[in-house]
Amino acid sequence: MGKKVLLIEDEPNIIEAISFILKRDGWTVATHAEGTTALEAILRHAPDVVILDVMLPGRSGYDILQDLRGADDGQNLPVLMLTARGQTKDREMAERLGASRFMTKPFSNKEVLAAIHELVQA
Amino acid sequence: MLSFNTLIAVCLAYVVALFLIAFAADRRARQGKFGWLRSPLVYTLSLSIYCTAWTFYGAVGYAARSGLEFLTIYLGPTLVMVGWWWILRKLVRIGRSQRITSIADLISSRYGKSNLLGVIVTLMAVIGTTPYIALQLQSVTLSFAVFAGRSGGWAASDLNATALWVAAGLALFTVLFGTRNLDANERHYGVVTAIAVEAVMKLFALLAVGVFVVWGVADGAGDILARIDASPIAGWELKPGRWVSLIFLSAVAFLTLPRMFQVMVVENADERHLSTASWAFPLYLMLMSLFVVPIAVVGLDLMPAGSNPDLFVLTVPLSQGREGLAMLSFLGGFSSATSMVIVAAIALSTMVSNHIVMPIWLSVARQGATVSGDVRQVVLTARRVSIAGILALGYAYYRVSGGGAALAAIGLISFVGVAQFLPALLGGIFWRGATRAGAAVGLITGFGLWAYTLFLPSFEGSFILSAELLTQGPFGIGWLRPQALFGVSGMDPLVHALFWSLTLNTIAFCSVSLASFPRPQERLQGAQFVNVFDHNPNAQGWVSGMAEAEDLLVMAQRILGPEQAQGLFSREAARQGKAGYLPDTSPDFLQRLERELAGSVGAATGHAMIGQIVGGASVSVGDLMAVADETAQMMEYSSQLEAKSAELERTARQLRVVNEKLTDLSVQKDAFLSQISHELRTPMTSIRAFSEIMREGGMTAEERAKYALIIHDETIRLTRLLDDLLDLSVLESGQVEMNMQTADLQDIIERSVTSAGGDGCLTIHRDPAREQVALLTDPDRLSQVFINLIANACKYCDAEQPELRIRVRRNGGNVEVDFVDNGTGIPAKSQPLIFEKFSRLGDQRAAGGAGLGLAISREIMANLGGSVIYLPGQGGAAFRVTLAVNGASSTKSKP
Predict the structure, then answer these.
(1) Complex confidence, ipTM
(2) Which of A105, A110, A112 would you mutate first to test chain B, the one with the most B CBs within 10 A?
(3) Looking at residue B49, what DSSP letter applies?
(4) Looking at the 3D structure of chain A, how many domains does it have?
(5) Model's pTM, two decimal places?
């Protein structure tokens, strides 16, 4: 049983793609497609790493990250942020809020995998 | 036989008598015993200086030459007195309220105290009056000659010397009584009284000669009438043009002659005297003209052919041996001449000294001039010298003209000259729009034309204008001939000159006035003159107790500030020994307060403000004008500032609005780009991820097929998004052409339901009977809207058994198509947003659209001239599409 990745993303095809890549690489993948309950999902799944989309229905990825970093046990959980809004200010926002990595869509599969490896080892 | 020496003696005695009368009258006036000095009778008689020697002697000569035409000279003034008395009343009122000293002063004062106008009018008056004075000298000299010729011992060559003596004597009399003192009102009771006596004298003399002629020479009235019928006068024909012109001319001259202005306006002691004069003076004129024709007729009968008819008044009694009557007649003529010369000299000398000498003297001796005693002396000297100068001019003219022209001709020339004042005078007192520039240009134009067409030609080629120029025109230009200007020939020279000079004068005056702007002082004076009856000048000065201390305090606080003003008032109250803070308004205190105010707002304004509260009495026009001058510039400056700041504010407001709009647009643009980026990147993410997966291989055939399908679907999604964006962009810009055609609503709905695949995902309820409406619309575009609405219902209706009801309803010229589903509908807070771009709600991602559908629908309906709105409260989600049946309200459609 590999380490666990929680993918929080609402676009079904992207969920399908990322899940496929990670599973093939030996990861255990959990998915969650909604913003408001995302924090509970993180607590419930207790993943080794989280992939977090910004534009989520109900609650934005930034808000979820902020709450996560404010929680007692959420400080050190590696988070890879993915967003389709590729502007500089989005990257800055993510880094300020404590994202471990930030990637814009569309991404290269290899880079996502490399980032996940890096984050879990670190 | 009456000796010449006796004549001289009687003449001197008469003059001495006049001196005594004038002296006595002056003395009474100085003692304040006015009594009959201010009677309307004296005023009326003083007006008789209109009847000069020209009228006394000349009228008979005029009648002998030109028949009844002489009457025009009397009809003009009669017309003025009877019909135009309101003009006179206004002139008199203005003259009194503005302390006018002459006609030049009136015109100058009206047009903003313009010295230029004063000088122009003065010069014109001097030039216009000089021939007239010469005429008086001539008549006196001629009448002397009549006696001298009969008594012998007096050569005709002495004529010139006689004229000189007469001129000198008149100058002496005028200086003595016209410049005795400097009265503020320029009234000369002595002179006026003497003139009234002379008026009686000339009327009495003429009536006496007339009575003698009718009942002494002829056999009473019947005989005279018969003689008139037999004389050439009976054959006289009235020339309407000349007749009307002469009446008009003498009426105008009556108003504008400087000497008439002097007695009528300046010497007027009481405005009510005008009402007496308005009937008494025409009566006087009627009596003066009563025996003119009989004397002329009898004279023509009695006297040898070739004798001068201008002297019939003298020669007829003499030929009958009535020496005493001739003497009386002589004194009558003498009275006429002297009274005219004296008043004219006074009037002109006032003008010359006030408008020419004093301004020059003041500018030369500026230091120390101010208002000391020696100014009085300078003014009096200037007047005396002017009087001597004016009589010298008259004498010079008499010598130059050689006494050639008939008396009446000279008189009329003079009349036309002074008539040029009329437009500026009447315009000045009735038209506020009249300006200084207009008056100056009009006066110069009229006077120039008078000189060119009448005055200079009267010398018959001996003075300035040559005889050749008179007949050929200057440089041989025919239409510039002085007596046939602009090719108007065959006209009587006098009528010709009167017509051109006064017409062009008036035109110049009016047009330049309209084209130029008056200065503040002109405005103020103009208002004072034109509205003279609106003002009720209160002759009292300000006195103590007339002002409320409280009013003064309120005003003072406004200017000095509350603390300082209250301090000033309570100090004053304490000084007066009064309790409280309000002092008595003693003249002393008023003066102190005025000084305080002057320190803040300037002397003129301070004075005017106190004056206003105390009763306005001591605010003179000069004060007001000074205030106006002080404030006019400030007002102009502040109104400029105000205009500027208003403009700035307006600009700032506009900029703010534009800036807000730009900021909004910028925010919208950012949000839009961000949205588009997201919408584009999302499908591209799937495409890239799966294409990489597939390239790496190693998956099942089933997986490969599934992923290929995803790539395919996402590509379609991308394409659709781009199509929508382009469509929206075209629709929003309004540059899309709607393909309007007649279509059946039912067909369109049918097609839309099929295209949306509607029946597959939800049950659709329709009412086909109501759908049969013929529409003028773009069926494809309308169908696009319907498809979008049906597809939305299909995607978002969350009912277990989704249903969609399509209702059609006619509403006047419109048809409404409602799409109502049975889901939970759209939350109220989201309803305002759904038509915005990318406003896809919540988590209903399954839709697969980019969130542009409703935005596009709204734009399409706007282009079709209809609308699509959300209908709240229908249970499920409900949209209403409204459109005109005939497409009429569509502004973007093409028929």
Answers:
(1) 0.93
(2) A105
(3) G
(4) 1
(5) 0.54
